[in-house]
Please model this.
Amino acid sequence: MLSAVVRHTPPDVRAHHTFGASDAEGFAAMGIVETLVHMHDLAEGLGLTWEPPADLCARVLGRLFPGAPHDTDPWPTLLWATGRGDLPGHPRVTSWRWYGSPRG
Model:
């Protein structure tokens, strides 16, 4: 569904989000983050180990979390950016948001 939104929405279309208007790519990235972190929550609750592809995590970090470190492993960094984990050398995130505004 997320890829269809990106594929079929003109690049100049914007839609409302609580944190500001975003484009289709931004909404797709938000949907991916929601899917990844809630899958983590579910797996953790069931005592399962689960880790998504690093390249996918890196892409959504780059799109939605411009202040996140770029020299750390993407999955723990995404968990840190969404307040779900610690990241050595960085203070724990207790309140977070993403930045879905269209890029360049």
In short: The CA atoms of residues 82 and 96 lie 6 Å apart.
